[in-house]
């Protein structure tokens, strides 16, 4: 009897052993390819199946899945090992101590948001079933993936690219469908064979889903990522490399990120026409954090190293920034939760602006730009401070101050410019006039303030302005009509909204003025504005101004009249004097006192009062010319008397008084030692015999 029982048990063991070691692997090797072919239309190759019926260890080797007819590999692995505990099955538990996957490969094709594998494996939709009370719990001690690869092909619109995740390893511990304990995991891979990506942390699969992990990645190629973004952007990112280190958390649909360290290097952005737009060596963010629930971002420091910005003004005078970013006509405005941000410090290090103005065919370079802004916040009541330094050509520029957004926008700043060459800005003056700035430099020390105020001007600039070696040229005549060695403006104040300007004192040294009446009897100083600008000025309201004191020292003027039969030219030099209370205020009375030398031996003296806004309303002035050489006035004599002057001296005393548009004058002329030369065939207005 015992022998019979032993024989039966031995037979059962033998059959069980044979079925487990031989039959089951054979059937699996035959059935698995047929299952994938019939169910998913996929071709499958499986080289080896091994199963231990006693330890419940399963080995699958050289497994490959292909798309039918295309022969494109979708999934494969060299080896899959599963260690299942059969005893736990009696306790309604599927207990797996280890799942080990070696050298796996997955091909993912994401076509306009649709994933290839989801299409394939969702072709047969499983019906929803109520939870089975007799269902087995699943417990996995460890899942390990080694030396694996993922190939991700993305097609978005007309663009496509391929990303490789190489040397992928994954480790997960203590997974259970019955536990809500966090599941630790680690993932490491290289993106495109070179950029390491490491994610390590814990997650909870049970409701609510939770996630807490540290993400570390370096040298990510941003060019490939941004190439798949909105195609309406007329931008072409040439190079950019991203490194990111942060801790991210997701719990109850609330996302947050802390300890954000972001580094973007070698950023180079161009337009689709390969025109440069912006580049920088590095963008570094330190100790940032984001709270999704509060929609807030905070950061200790942001540094931008060697940024270069290219600005272009088109020939029509417009800046084409909007064209670069395209537009979404279908977009609709949606109410968004307010966003809070606070950044302790932003530093711009050694930046440049390259400005190409195609309208006036001029290029400018602002270099060595350094900017530090502290306490940047969306809280409008917070005060922010800044310091800005740069160079235009070789001229240092410095500005320092603070600003606050509310209760009303407030700005306090200093502005310092030293010896800025102004001739480079001449094209902008020539746009609306026939005036060219041929030379000159300015030095400015000013304080700027802005605050929206109903009782005071919104914008105010106060300070001193020093102009050196200034020269203005009439571009039509190609002659210099104004110049000065120095113009020193002391304690000026310019205010806007409402507009007004005041200068306490102006010292002008070695000024030069050239006045010319052309053959067509046009005065050069009245023909400097271009026609369109003249019409515009007549429509604009005058800008109120007042100048307390103008001192003129060692100056000169040349007067040329080519409208006469004999051209007239005279020069006033060693001109000194002052003008007080110059203004376009209708009630302001100005005072003038000037004296100078006319040609070699003559003299000029001007003294009086006048309403500078409109001298026809009030003027009371004396002009005295002494010892003028009459021969230089021969052209006027020929015009009115028909005679040239051979010799003589002229003394003129003029007194003009205008009140309410009525002129009262007292004039006295005295000629000495006059000699006339007769002129024939002249149509004279005043015959002299």
Termini separation comes to: 175 Å
Number of helices: 7
Instruction: Look at the structure and give the mean pLDDT.
Output: 85
Shape: rod-shaped
What is the C-alpha radius of gyration, as a whole number of Å?
Answer: 45 Å
Sheet-strand content, in percent, reads: over 45%
Structural class comes to mainly beta
How many β-strand stretches?
A: 32
Give unreliable regions as ranges.
125-129, 682-689
Characterize the largest beta sheet: strand count, sense, and whether it forms a barrel: 32 strands, mixed
Task: Tell me roughly what share of residues is in helical segments.
Answer: 10-25%
Give your account of this protein's structure.
By secondary structure, this protein is mainly beta. It has a domain of 89 residues. 11% of the residues lie in helices and 61% in strands. The chain has 7 helices and 32 strands. It has a 32-stranded mixed β-sheet that branches. The longest helix is centred in the first third of the chain and has 39 residues. The radius of gyration is 45 Å and the shape is rod-shaped.
Write the layout of secondary structure elements.
Layout: H1 2-40, E1 42-52, E2 57-67, E3 73-85, E4 93-102, E5 105-111, E6 114-115, H2 116-121, E7 137-156, E8 159-176, E9 183-191, E10 195-204, E11 210-221, H3 222-226, E12 235-251, E13 254-271, E14 276-291, E15 296-305, E16 308-313, H4 321-325, E17 340-357, E18 362-377, E19 383-392, E20 395-404, E21 410-421, H5 426-430, E22 435-451, E23 459-474, E24 479-496, E25 500-517, H6 531-539, E26 545-561, E27 568-583, E28 590-598, E29 602-610, E30 618-629, H7 634-640, E31 643-659, E32 662-678
Parallel strand pairs: 4-7, 5-7, 15-17, 16-17, 25-26
Antiparallel strand pairs: 1-2, 2-3, 3-4, 3-5, 5-6, 7-8, 8-9, 9-10, 10-11, 11-12, 12-13, 13-14, 14-15, 14-16, 17-18, 18-19, 19-20, 20-21, 21-22, 22-23, 23-24, 24-25, 26-27, 27-28, 28-29, 29-30, 30-31, 31-32
